[in-house]
Amino acid sequence: MCSCGCGTCQTKIRGPLLTEGKVKSLLSEGLQYHIDKKIPLFENIYRISSDKHLSLIREARKMYSRGIINLCEEDEALIKTHLGEFGIYEGESVPLDLPMIEEDKINEAEYKGKDVKLNKPKRGGSKAYYVYVNSGKKNKDGSIKVKKVSFGSGGLRAKIKDKDARKAFAARHNCDQKKDRTKAGWWSCNLPRYAKQLGLGSNMNTYW
């Protein structure tokens, strides 16, 4: 969709675009902020999976279906999912189309004599980023054996904002098949989820 709303020119929009000014007062503060700052929905200002995040997606879907807002390609694909809706699984209400990361219940451990936080990627190390993870093994004293995983390159910073580059990266590295958090490949593929704490922009609940 073009940025002026005519649907014919080639200037693409980035964030949601309001097509009816008279309904502006009906928008939530969050959606209005996305529109004013031209922030796409997939870079949601709210914490991913929070009530406000899911509520904003539902609101945007409703406004889009009524022709009140226009969206970029990525956001159109997002609101065409069931994100923001809930279903019942084994007697429990669960969010639909919301990729979840199963975090280690233990968030601190010892690595080479110092206390470190697990699953919190940082800049630096032998590559662009590093993270300490639970290796799944035990030390002789029964404590968690921590593994330091180095991953990524400086080029990932530029690619994270480029839709085509993200798709190519995900396909090339088979990101949908990466399941092992102790491997560099998993962390490279899931880098968008940790973008904010690495200074790469807003977190994205997506693979590359």
Summarize the structure.
By secondary structure, the chain is α+β, with helices and mostly antiparallel strands. It has 2 domains: 17-95, no CATH class; 108-198, no CATH class. The chain is built from 6 helices and 9 strands.
Please give the radius of gyration in angstroms. 20 Å
Helix content: 25-40%
* Quaternary structure state of the chains depicted: single chain
Q: Give me the strand/helix succession.
A: EHHEHEEEEEEEHHH
What class would the helix/strand composition place it in?
alpha+beta
Residue stretches low in confidence (pLDDT < 50, at least 5 long) are none
Strand arrangement in the largest pleated sheet: 7-8-9
Kindly state the number of beta strands.
9
Number of domains: 2
> How many strands, what sense, and barrel or not for the largest sheet?
3 strands, antiparallel
Q: Tell me the strand percentage band.
A: 15-25%
Alpha carbon gap, first and last residue: 22 Å
Count helical runs.
Answer: 6
General form: elongated
Give the mean pLDDT: 81
